[in-house]
Structure formats: C-alpha cells, structure tokens
Amino acid sequence: MIYRSKPVVLMAADMRQIDGQTFHAVGHKYVAAVAEAAQAVPLAIPALGSNSELEALIALADGILLPGAISNVHPSHFGEDVLNPSLPLDPARDSTTLRLIDAAVTSGVPLLGICRGFQEINVAFGGSLHQAVHDTEGFADHREVDSPVAQEQYGPRHLVSTVPGGLLAEITGRSEFMVNSLHGQGIARLGSGLVAEAYAPDGLIEAIRISDAKAFALAVQWHPEWDVLNNPPYLSIFRVFGAACRERAASRSAK
C-alpha cells in the first residue's frame, strides 16, 4: 500500500551547461505551480539511463509535468534536419521525455505538457513541428517580446479559441481567453491519436489532448505556470491536473 498526504508530480529536467559543468535543471515557476496551484509535491527527474529506471519512476509518479525549456526537440525525431544550428538542443531530455510520455499514457499517469512539453507530446505521437513558425507563411511571430523584463515577456499576447465541447473549454469554462506566447516552434502535423483543443488567431494549434488516454492528458503551447494563481484559466488547468493526480494517488493507496 502507498499512502501520501499529497500526490507526487515528476517534472522532466533539462540538461544544461553552467560554468563548464553539467546540471539538471527545472525552472522555479514550474515547481511553484505544481506545489501551489496543483497542490502536489514537485520532484525533478534527470535524464534516464535505462528502462528499469523508467519503470521505477512511473511507479513513483502520481502525475507528470513536461515543462517548457530554452531548447528545442531535435528535428531528427520527426524526420527533418536541423534548420538553425544556432538554436539550443537537448538530446538527453529528448531521450527521457519521449519514452516517459509513452510509459505515462500506457500506465494511466496524468500528464500535463507545457511549451516544449506540448511539442514533445506531438512528436511522441508521430507529429512534426514547424522549426520556425515566424518564417512559415500564414503564421504570426509567436516568440516573446524583446525585453529583459519577465513580466513583459510573459504578458498577454494573443487570444486562443477553445474547441467547443472540448476538454479545455470544459476546464476553463471559456470559449476564448488571452495567453502569453514565447515559442519559435509549433505543431505542423498533428500526431496520430491527438486532438486539437485550442487555436491561435492565425490557426496554429495551441492545445492538444491525448484522445485515448486513461487519465488526464493535456498539453498547451503557452505558459500557464506564469502568475498562475492570479489567472483563472491558467489556474483551472493546474487545479484539474492536481485533482487527477490526487485521484491516482488515492486509487493506489487503496490497493
């Protein structure tokens, strides 16, 4: 029997070089959002070395959060060459998350993807990405504003329209709301088994769900973790995710 006062949410870490050394890092805003908005225990996980470690982590998890990152998913995972070699990549994170997504869905672990995590889920299900949305005909520039001030970078940028009758529309209770925008890449071909849940005004997919997942499985292109407690649509996503994690924890406690 497993008993916990709060569910445990695993968060995929980035592999980063800082002062010549390798670190596994997760942004504080994601940690705070899991703790305060989802009311769960955040636990960062490094790149995995074996399938046995993957199994152990899935056994530990009541939920999984795939955070955003400065790096992009390597385009080899969707059959393309690197378009811009100056942009950062993180193969170690790719090897972790792409396996973790499949294991989470198979095991019925609640899953929330944000920005890079949103793109990882699409790629894991066989989808592809625009490597430069701003250079793709018909789409706006979705990158952050050029400012050193975080409040300006994460400020409202554009509306998203939720799909009528969809999960995100149900969660937020809204047909549209404003979101921030800090991404250069985005979904080109939607992965098999994924359903679009929201769109930007230019038609870019901004939210998806995994259609046959056994538990909550949603991902968004924007950053709902930012100032989450003061933004009702953002908060609603984390609240429902946290409830799904508690449900999994409770069901495992009963065994």
Automatic annotation (TrEMBL):
Family annotation (Gene3D superfamilies): 3.40.50.880
Function: Involved in the breakdown of putrescine via hydrolysis of the gamma-glutamyl linkage of gamma-glutamyl-gamma-aminobutyrate.
Record organism: Halothiobacillus neapolitanus (strain ATCC 23641 / DSM 15147 / CIP 104769 / NCIMB 8539 / c2)
Keyword list, A-Z: Hydrolase
InterPro entries according to UniProt: Class_I_gatase-like, Peptidase_C26, PuuD-like
Name of the protein in its database record: gamma-glutamyl-gamma-aminobutyrate hydrolase
Record-level Gene Ontology MF annotations: gamma-glutamyl-gamma-aminobutyrate hydrolase activity
Pathway note: Amine and polyamine degradation; putrescine degradation; 4-aminobutanoate from putrescine: step 4/4
